Amino acid sequence: MTRFSRLIESIGQQRDKVIEYQTRMTELPALGPENGGTGEMPKALYLEGLLRELGVTDILRIDAPDPRVPDGVRPNVVARIPGASPRRLWILGHMDVVPPGELSYWKTDPWKVVVDGDKIRGRGVEDNQQAIVCGLLIAQELKAQGITPDLSLGLIFVSDEETSSRYGIHYILKTHADLFGPDDFVVVPDYGVADGSSIEISEKGQLWMRVEVLGHQCHASRPQEGRNSLVAAADMILHVRDLESIYAQVDPLFQPPCCTFVPTRHEENVPNINSLPGKDVFYIDCRILPGISHDDVLASAREIMEAVAERHGVTVDITTVTNAPASPATPPDSEVVLRLSAGIREIYGIEPHCAGSGGGTVAVGFRDMGIPAAVWASVVPTYHLANEYSLISRTIGDAQVLARMLFD
């Protein structure tokens, strides 16, 4: 039996470990301060200790200073296992998760794993603990079986992916870029389709706008004395769709193939019912096709919102929360795509294809540096939804696909 065959067979027997790792991580909510949490440190300490238990000795913690969290830092865990070649396959996962949202939508406690046949349910089990578990299974079985792969393996478990990546992969690339060799390549298991056939090689740009509407507060029984910021904001929200006709370009690599402009969050205004509000704040999530200027989109948004504001006698101010233009695409014939495609064919018996995504994965920083990065997983997907779940069989299968990439 070949080294690869031994590794694949042993990974295939790790259902109990998938459940164990998922259960432990889910019990450690890793919410960033923007999402009302205290950061990722407990999960990072668990993963760091687990890697040592598995026999991994080359472990590095890269802590990004952040005074908003109790520990004062946002942790990032890097683990390396040598292969016959110094060339390295990096597998990235993010430790932070999103809040569970409205708890009444959940069938069970979002922070307690529930196993139902092949499904494992809980907040974060798919986004992005499935990726972390894949990396752990490969590391575990390389060490347990005493196998030296052809390529070296690197695992990176980052913080802050769900908000800005400022304290995660961006900090790592800024302060420890020398970790990555010129011939290394990267897989980020943070996007995919249920059958695992889609390899993401390009992402839309990400632009988050904060829209502040200022009117004049008064008693709700005398609305003529005020300027209702909520009514004006509601009108502006309805006009966000005007951006779709201005930026109507289409790229079939992506689904949906167009730019998207979606009003999402609204901050609380007045706490009482009988006050007409004088200040409202809402947010717009924009995903911009490559080649479209974010500055142009911002200018168009300001023009649209200012026209609405004038009609309502209010003022409006638009600022950016996140502004990350699209990165260069990974070539479809790059080695990372070819190796990944070969693994998908061998393990899942299907023909993969290249695609684009809405953006926001940690692959962007690598592409900006010229390091080939592919984003891939076989997921339902249920990320950010109530009753988020992952398939145990697919976690194991994905780990086998990624393990295949380590062998020539």
Offer a few descriptive terms.
408 residues, Aminopeptidase, Alpha-Beta Plaits, four-stranded antiparallel β-sheet, 11 helices, 17 strands, 31% helix, globular, Peptidase_M20A, hydrolase, hydrolase activity, metal-binding, Peptidase_M20
Number of domains: 2
Number of strands: 17
Fraction of residues in β-strands? 25-35%
Taking strands numbered 1, 2, ... along the chain, how are they ordered across the largest sheet? 1-2-6-3-7-16
Kindly report the average pLDDT value: 97
Keywords: Hydrolase, Metal-binding
Domain Peptidase M20 dimerisation: 201-311
Protein name: ArgE/DapE family peptidase
Pfam families: M20_dimer, Peptidase_M20
Descriptive account of the structure:
By secondary structure, the protein is α/β, with parallel strands linked by helices. It has two domains: 3-203 and 326-406, 3-Layer(aba) Sandwich (Aminopeptidase), CATH 3.40.630; 205-324, 2-Layer Sandwich (Alpha-Beta Plaits). The protein is built from eleven helices and 17 strands. It has helices spanning 3-11, 15-26, 41-53, 129-145, 169-175, 229-239, 242-246, 294-312, 335-348, 363-368, 392-404, and strands at residues 58-65, 73-81, 85-94, 114-116, 119-121, 151-158, 185-188, 198-203, 205-214, 218-219, 260-266, 275-276, 279-288, 315-324, 353-357, 373-375, 389-391. The strands form five sheets. The protein has a six-stranded mixed sheet, with helices on both faces. A hairpin with a 7-residue loop joins β1 and β2 (73-81). The longest helix has 19 residues, at 294-312. It is globular. The two termini are 16 Å apart. 46% of the residues are buried. The model has no long low-confidence stretch (mean pLDDT 97).
